[in-house]
Amino acid sequence: MGFPTLNLAPHILIVDDNAEIRLLLKDFLQRRGMRVSLAKDGSELDAEIERTKVDLIVLDIMLPGRSGLELCQEIRRRSRVPIIMLTAVTDTSDRIVGLEFGADDYMSKPFDPRELLARIRAVLRRQGGLQLEEPAPAANAVVQFSGWTLDFGRRRLTDVSGVRVELTRAEFNLLEALVQAGGRVLSREQLIERCGGNASQSFDRSIDILISRLRRKLEDDPKKPSMIETVRGDGYQFVAEINR
Question: Which domain holds residue 222?
Answer without folding.
Answer: 142-238
